[in-house]
C-alpha cells in the first residue's frame, strides 16, 4: 500500500488516494496511517529484505539465472544467511527472479543398422558406488547463425561430474565424441580399465574409430536403445539442463566458437559450483572429495 501511494502521491495527493482506495480495498490505509508508517523506522525484517534482495539477484545471475526456490535457499544458507525456504520464495518474487524450466527433448541419434552392437550393461540403473565406475555420454546440438554446433558430453554417474566434452561443427566420430573421450581419458591418467562406457546406438558412438578407442583405453562398452530416452536417461537429462540453463538463456548464438567458449565456462560451473538436487544439493567435486576422504580414512583405520 505504502509503495503504491508513494508512486502516485505527487499526482493525486495522499488524502485523495487513501479516501478513494479505502472505499474499494478493504483494510486500505488512512492518510494518518500512511504518515505514521512513513515516520516509523524500518523494521528488522525490512532491513534484512533490503540486504537479501540484491544478494539474491547477484547469486541468481552468477549461477546462470537458473536456480529455483530450493537451490537458492540452499545457496543462501551456504553463503551464511539464516533464511527459510518460504522466505526465500517471497524474496525471489520481490527480486523478480525464478528458476528455469526445461523444454521437450529433440532426438539426434542416427543409428547404423549394419553394425553389431554391444549389449546394455546398465538396464536403466543409473547408480554407481564410486567415481569411474559408470560413464554415460550423449550428443546434442545448438543452432547458430553460422550453422549447427554439435556438443558431446561424458558424465560420471557417481558424482554427475562432466569428465569429458567437445563442441564441433560436425558429427563425425573422429572429431566430436572422440575428442570428448580423449579429454575424459586424459583427466583419468589415460587408464579407463573397468569403466562402463554407456551410450545410445548413434552411428557416432558405434563407429569403429570410436569403439576401438574405447576398448583400447580399457573401458567396457554398453548401449541402450535407439531413440529411447529412458535407456540413456542421465545423459539425456544433462543435455536438457545444458539447453535450459545455458543455450536458451544466453542465445541467440552467432558461431560454433562462441558456443564452445560458453560451454567451457558452463562445464566449470557445473562441476565446481552448481548445486545438484540428486547430490543432496552438493557439487560434483564435493561429492568426489567426500568419497576419497572416506576411503583414505578407512585405509588409515585399517592399518
UniProtKB/TrEMBL annotation:
GO terms classed as biological process: DNA integration
Tree of life domain: Bacteria
Gene3D superfamilies: Ribonuclease H-like superfamily/Ribonuclease H (3.30.420.10)
Xref: Pfam families: HTH_21, rve, rve_2
InterPro entries recorded: HTH-like_dom, Integrase_cat-core, RNaseH-like_sf, RNaseH_sf, Transpos_IS3, Transposase_IS3/IS150/IS904
Boundaries of every Integrase catalytic domain copy: 127-292
Entry's Gene Ontology molecular function annotations: nucleic acid binding
The protein's role, per its UniProt record: Involved in the transposition of the insertion sequence.
Record protein name field: IS3 family transposase
Species of origin: Flaviflexus salsibiostraticola
Amino acid at each position: 500500500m505504502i509503495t503504491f501511494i508513494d508512486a502516485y502521491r505527487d499526482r493525486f495527493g495522499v488524502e485523495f488516494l487513501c479516501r478513494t482506495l479505502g472505499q474499494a480495498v478493504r483494510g486500505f490505509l488512512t492518510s494518518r496511517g500512511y504518515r505514521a508508517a512513513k515516520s516509523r523506522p524500518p523494521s528488522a525484517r525490512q532491513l534484512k529484505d533490503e540486504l537479501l534482495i540484491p544478494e539474491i539477484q547477484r547469486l541468481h545471475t552468477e549461477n546462470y539465472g537458473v536456480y529455483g526456490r530450493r537451490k537458492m535457499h540452499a545457496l543462501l544458507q551456504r553463503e551464511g544467511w539464516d533464511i527459510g525456504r518460504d522466505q526465500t520464495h517471497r524474496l525471489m518474487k520481490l527480486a523478480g527472479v525464478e528458476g528455469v524450466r526445461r523444454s521437450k527433448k529433440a532426438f539426434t541419434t542416427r543409428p547404423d543398422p549394419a553394425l553389431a552392437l554391444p549389449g546394455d550393461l546398465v538396464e536403466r540403473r543409473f547408480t554407481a558406488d564410486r567415481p569411474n565406475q559408470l560413464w554415460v555420454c550423449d550428443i546434442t546440438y545448438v543452432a547458430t547463425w553460422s550453422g549447427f554446433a554439435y556438443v558431446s558430453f561424458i558424465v560420471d554417474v557417481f558424482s554427475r561430474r562432466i569428465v569429458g566434452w567437445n563442441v564441433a561443427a560436425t558429427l563425425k566420430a573422429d572429431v566430436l565424441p572422440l575428442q570428448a573421450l580423449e579429454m575424459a581419458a586424459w583427466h583419468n591418467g589415460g587408464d579407463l580399465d573397468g569403466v562402463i562406457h554407456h551410450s545410445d546406438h548413434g552411428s557416432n558412438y558405434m563407429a569403429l574409430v570410436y569403439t576401438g578407442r574405447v576398448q583400447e583405453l580399457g573401458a567396457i562398452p554398453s548401449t541402450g536403445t535407439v531413440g529411447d530416452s529412458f535407456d540413456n536417461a542421465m545423459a539425456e537429462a544433462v543435455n536438457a539442463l545444458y539447453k535450459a540453463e545455458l543455450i536458451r538463456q544466453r542465445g541467440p548464438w552467432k558461431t560454433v566458437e562462441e558456443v564452445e567458449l560458453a560451454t567451457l565456462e558452463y562445464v566449470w560451473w557445473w562441476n565446481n559450483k552448481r548445486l545438484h538436487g540428486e547430490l543432496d544439493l552438493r557439487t560434483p567435486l564435493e561429492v568426489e572429495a567426500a568419497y576419497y576422504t572416506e576411503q583414505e580414512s578407512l585405509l588409515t583405520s585399517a592399518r
